[in-house]
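Suppose a colleague, Dr. K., hands you the sequence of a protein chain of 296 amino acids and asks what its three-dimensional shape might be. Before reaching for any lab equipment, you can write down a predicted structure in token form. Begin with the sequence itself:
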Amino acid sequence: NTYKGVTVQPGGPSEMYNIMSEMKAIEVAKANVGRPGMAVFGPESAISTTSRISVNLPNMGMSPTDGHDIPLMNEMKINRTGMMMQAACEISGSVIMTEALPIFGGYAGGPEETAICDVAVSIAAFVACGAHIHVDGPIHLKHGTSTTRGTLQVLAHVGTAIDRNTDLLLGSMYYVGAGPCTEMCFLENAAQAICDAASGREFSAMSASAKGSALDKTTGMEARFAGKTLQAASGMRGEDANYLLDSIVGLYEGNPTIPDGYRFQDCYDLNTLEPTNFHQEIYSLTADKLRSLGLD
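The predicted structure, expressed as tokens, is then:
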């Protein structure tokens, strides 16, 4: 990634300028929608310890009531960067939001073992790392997403177990395979959103389209679609959610190729930041498909 044409180097001045640019853009976005005090979580573009901790400083972008994202390591590990961030948050009295994404099909094994690992790291995040909020989202070793049938199974069981037996605040991270402005991308977001709603999660971090690894391939429409799905699925019984999920996942899991989707600048009018007619059409057609399956 670049900042004003300069490749961002972790630990260098370019990274500091880049992270401050992110913080400024967030402040402007919140002001534009009339919610200047709305809590956010981050930072998202920082890598080094210095830049991640710097956002805690006065007038640097994040407030103590924002969720300060501390990524944990697989499986059930934390590195020095994480410990430094934890210490900085504790000293400054900031909200700690830990993040751990167990690998489905990796060292933990299949769905049962991954679910046990996920519950364990979720509890450890609060006990050992002082988390106020924890975000998980098992990632499939082969596909690199959280929206396969197996990873959604883990997500639902873990969320239900923690919701029924604790008062801990739990969220999930969305890593979908398809790129933006495609039916599959919206369907994947809908599937994970239904899991979140039915399993009692309090928070959803959506959405990393194209596996969160393709430049310019994430837009706000995926989060809007997932958010609307969460609202529609709220209060749904587990049995009904399972039936609906079986139908939705069946629509995309057999795709021989995953659509690359479109870049942000191809999905929006950059002068007005309104989604293109084509983007809105794909959104509406996918919403109609979900309605035909029983979600309204």
